[in-house]
Design brief:
pyruvate-formate lyase- activating enzyme, 23 strands
């Protein structure tokens, strides 16, 4: 292509085991592709699938790359990944040579729709095409990796969530430390081969460049296990961790003074097998990261038969030990209102070896976590996606939903009540969406807790919130302190022991200038005293 070729990058919001690119997250794969195009001398235009959904025009281009696809489906608050049908319909409208990258390349529906499928490294394919070479679907070199991430950093300013609540997903290495054994049967990460680690200095330099542009929030989530960053792969499966490398990395990023610094993903077998090294890394995470951090543990199933049949990460015993260690090191509450570091847990239904007894074995494990008093910040239950192979689930959709509902009632709700008791103040909740008169917000970070306010609040702002009650996976809260003279009636009604009649009395008694005015508007001085610390008279 010509030196002044026009390159169009369409972000379809990927969700992969070791990479999240669904807003407010921005994938490193997208930034690298933009950098590769710039390195090849092209003009870069960046748009998202949301721009196209609302009817924005597709810019002209000589080469178009769509990065999209979901390998690990989740629930999304206000942005969702491009579906297979959207990606298929989109292709006819795309200008120039059309390339598809990301997990969508594995979709049977899309195999013959695009001119090229970039199964491995979309950035490398883009660079080859723009250089006038045959497309090379191979991995970029380390030097290209670092150069392209720096060159593509500027597209963050074009993201609709920039500067807040944008979270830059940062990649620390490619591949899985369990590559030699093939890893988990359902996961694509081991297919990337032996892990290739980025140097601490390069990762810090990328974060520094993003910070200079205006990024305030970072998640080192682009890896299969953060505990295994620069681990000694010669020690087997699981490998021996490298605490010094993790500390060098995190201390360097923390020195940039981000608003949020979180991580993602850990193999519980690594933590349980190397308790001394892992405990040192957990302490490093608490020291350098911001509160509310979560390590998602890939147990996948507590059934030993399923573990063996699918070559899963760890045993149930190893996962329980990892949960204990993370709670012990990270359980203290930070200034965000949440503990510094907690475990999450991933469970997958539909794997080989499952029987009718598998759900009960998983429930027994979860009840034991609850009985021991441990906290789980996030419990993710999903059905397996046939990415690497086909599965023949022994548990049908109806039984899966029944199991999921049971977990929500018996585990998630009591866990939430323990995690954020009534009266807990959650700092800097970003208001993102509204459904009727309910406003939804989240703190910025890994697996943030969904907070529902039972009244309208202006969107796209930070507020402090006090927890009032719990759902299965969310909490109901009010602004803290609640501005009693300007808040809506529904907010007054959400105050403890108020109810509708007292809320109406408060509403009609406004303006309330003093505590005495509050007492006079209520029929119970004890309730007024209880509200004293929750409201302001501004």
């Amino acid at each position: 292509m010509s030196p002044q070729a026009r390159f169009l990058l369409i972000d379809g919001f990927v969700d992969e085991p070791a990479c999240l690119g669904v807003p407010p997250y921005l994938s490193p794969q997208v930034r690298a592709a933009a950098g590769a195009a710039r390195d090849a001398g092209a003009e870069v235009e960046y748009i998202t699938i949301d721009h196209l959904r609302r009817g924005d025009k597709i810019p002209p281009a000589d080469l178009t790359l769509v990065i999209a696809g979901v390998a690990v489906p989740g629930k999304y608050l206000r942005a969702s990944p491009a579906s297979s049908q959207e990606i298929q319909r989109l292709v006819e409208r795309l200008p120039g040579v059309r390339v598809l990258g990301g997990p969508a390349t594995l979709e049977p529906l899309l195999q013959d729709k695009y001119d090229l499928l970039a199964h491995r490294d979309p950035a490398m394919v883009v660079y080859s095409l723009l250089q006038g070479e045959e497309p090379q679907d191979r991995w970029r070199t380390m030097e290209q990796w670092e150069r392209w991430l720096l060159a593509g950093a500027e597209i963050v300013a074009k993201h609709s969530d920039f500067p807040q609540p944008l979270m830059a997903e940062i990649e620390t290495y490619r591949g899985c430390v369990r590559y030699a054994s093939g890893g988990c049967s359902f996961c694509v990460e081991p297919l990337k081969g032996k892990p290739v680690y980025r140097d601490e200095e390069a990762i810090i330099a990328e974060c520094k460049r993003l910070a200079e542009i205006g990024v305030r929030n970072f998640r080192l989530g682009g890896q299969s296990c953060i505990i295994s960053y620069k681990a000694d792969l010669g020690t087997g499966d699981p490998p021996r961790p490298n605490p010094r490398a993790v500390e060098r990395l995190l201390s360097g990023v923390t020195a940039l003074q981000p608003d949020v610094l979180h991580v993602d993903n850990a193999n519980p077998a690594v933590i349980a097998s190397y308790p001394e090294e892992s405990a040192a890394i957990l302490r490093t995470l608490v020291k350098y990261c911001t509160p509310g951090n979560v390590l998602a543990l890939g147990l996948e199933s507590a059934d030993p038969e399923v573990q063996r049949a699918n070559n899963l990460n760890s045993t149930a015993e190893q996962a329980m030990e990892a949960i204990r260690m993370i709670n012990e090191v990270g359980g203290a509450r930070g200034d965000s209102g949440l503990p510094y570091l907690l475990p999450g847990l991933n469970l997958i239904v539909g794997l080989d070896g499952e029987t009718a007894a598998t759900p009960e074995r998983n429930m027994t494990f979860l009840h034991e976590v609850l009985r021991r008093g441990y906290l789980l910040r996030r419990l993710n239950i999903r059905q397996v996606i046939a990415v690497r192979k086909e599965f023949a689930p022994a548990i049908n959709r109806r039984k899966f939903i029944r199991f999921k509902e049971r977990v929500r009632k018996e585990i998630d709700r009591p866990m939430l009540q323990r995690l954020v008791p009534a009266g807990t103040v959650l700092r800097r909740v970003y208001t993102e969406a509204r459904d009727g008169n309910t406003t939804f917000g989240r703190q910025i970070g890994s697996y943030p807790l969904l907070v529902g306010f039972p009244y309208p609040i202006e969107l796209d702002q930070f507020v402090d919130a006090m927890v009032m009650s719990w759902g299965y996976r969310s909490v109901t809260a009010i602004e803290y302190p609640l501005k009693v003279n300007s808040c809506p009636l529904a907010a007054l009604q959400a105050l403890p022991k108020i109810g509708r009649k007292r809320a109406i009395r408060l509403f009609h008694g406004r303006p309330l200038r003093t505590y005495e005015d509050l007492v006079a508007s209520l029929d119970d001085p004890a309730i007024a005293e209880e509200l004293r610390g929750l409201i302001s008279f501004d």
